[in-house]
Amino acid sequence: MTSQLFAICFRSPRPSEAARFWSEVLGRQPAGGPGGGVVLPPPDGAGFRIRFLPGQEPKTGENRAHFDLTSTSPEDQRATVARALEHGGRHIDVGQTPDEGHVVLADPDGNEFCVIEPGNEFLAGTGFIGALACDGTREVGYFWSRALGWPLVWDQDEETAVQSPDGGTKITWGGPPVAPKTGVNRLFLELAPADGIGLEAECERLVGLGAKRPGDGADDGGVLMLDPDGNEFTVRASQPHF
What we know:
Protein name: VOC family protein
Helix content: 10-25%
Domain VOC: 4-118
Pfam family, one: Glyoxalase_6
Number of helices: 4
Organism: Streptomyces rhizosphaericola
């Protein structure tokens, strides 16, 4: 049995405003969440949620993870960029060259994301959120493949990617060099044990795969853990309907 990806979480000093921005960009309707957070449920009732939780993590360089949004045409790409700028996003320079087709933006909290040009074969068929693109090692890609039970759909030159057997958003890791981790990640994954599997049993399984358990608590009664690259993630105590 494997964990389920329950949510991709953002920590924000203004979770309601962050959720409003991403709601407009993604076309997802927000809903209230526990602890002052906001949730964007998946549009079709399946797949992962996006949660915005209160947090004061300072911005100390580029995030270790960001969304890659797909486009169906040049006009669609321009419309996504315009929508993001209209609702508080901005252009940023992360070293991209003028001949690259993707557009690099930041949300109102400074979190990077990319609007990918049409025709990107790697993200074909993934949906609007084509990928959660991460800075990470091959080892961490292997870990998440085993943790989620998602097959590797790319494993080359120390770059890896996984995708649910049901399709949808990919999670990718770019391989070395991996920048040193400084502070707490603003974006992190939230897992839920499979039906019938207890929280402690699932945490023990993840430790056996290479995760660490630092001993601190997590939101909503869950457990805080670290993947092999030291990235925080949480395992929920239960699966509430939000």
